[in-house]
Amino acid sequence: MYAALLRGVNVGKSVKVPMASLRGLIENIGFGNVTTYLNSGNVIFDSELPRSEIEFSIEDGLEKLIGKKIPVLVKSSLELNLINNSIPTEWKNDEFQKTDVAYLFNEADNENALKILPVRREFIDVRYVKGALFWNVARKNYNKSHINKIIGHVLYEKMTIRNVNTARQLAKLTDQ
Questions:
Q1: What does DSSP say about strands 124-129 and 159-163: parallel, antiparallel, or unpaired?
Q2: Model pLDDT, residue 12
Q3: Angle between helices 77-86 and 164-174 (to 10 degrees)
Q4: Which phi-psi region, left, alpha or beta, contains residue 42 (left: φ > 0; alpha: ψ -120 to 50)?
Q5: Alpha helices, DSSP H only, in 30-126?
Q6: CATH class of 2-76
Q7: Domain-wise residue ranges, the chain
Q8: What letter would DSSP give residue 105?
C-alpha cells in the first residue's frame, strides 16, 4: 500500500481539494482500495506502478481537476512504518508538547536537511530518518525553538508536514 501526501492543501487559505474529489481521482487513475484520511490531502491506495509514475499520474490528474500544480509525495507502507517506528513513543501532541513529521521530497531527503533547519536546538529535539525529519518541542518553548521560521526557509518547499498523530495513523492504515 501507498500513501500520497499532497503538499499545502486544505490549510488556511491554501488550495482546496475536496477529499471526495481526490478519492474519485485516485480511483479513476486505476488505483485500488482507495481511502482518504482527514481533510489534509492524505490518500491511501494500492498500486503496482513505480512511484514516479504514481506521483506523475496524481499530480497531472490534480492539475486537470483543480487547475493548479500540487506537489505530491508518495510513501510506501514500509517507508511510513520506518519513519513511525523512529519516533519515540513518548513524543505526543498534547497540552505539554508538540510533535510533527516533515516528510521530505527526494531532493531534500538527506541528513544535511537536519543540519540546515533554522531552529534553536536547545529548545527542540529534531531528528532525521530516511524520508523525514521529525521534531518534538515543549509547548512552552515553541516560540523560542524558532520552528515557525522553517516557513520561509528553502527546505520548506521540499517537505510536507503532518502532526505525529496523523503520521502514526498513516503508517497504521498502510500496514493493513
A1: unpaired
A2: 67
A3: 140
A4: beta
A5: 51-66, 77-86, 112-116
A6: alpha beta
A7: 2-76, 78-174
A8: P
Q: Model-level pTM?
A: 0.94
Helix, strand, coil percentages in the chain from 3-state DSSP, rounded to 5: 40, 30, 30
- pLDDT value for 122: 97
User: What is the CATH T-level fold of the domain 78-174, as seen in this structure?
Assistant: Alpha-Beta Plaits (3.30.70)
| Contact by Cβ (8 Å): 17, 41 | yes
| Sign of the Cα pseudo-torsion (59, 112, 3, 156, in order) | negative
What is the reported pLDDT for 38?
87
**Residue 13, pLDDT score:** 66
Cell 529535539 identifies what position? 125
Which residues of the chain carry a pLDDT beneath 70?
A: 10, 12-13
Contacts of 134 (CB under 8 A, 6+ apart): 83, 86, 87, 91, 99, 100, 101, 102, 126, 127, 164, 167
According to DSSP, residue 163 is labeled E
Of the candidates 149, 155, 129, the one whose C-alpha atom is nearest the C-alpha of residue 137 is: 149
Please tell me the predicted confidence (pLDDT) of residue 176: 73
Distance separating the N- and C-terminal Cα atoms of the chain = 8
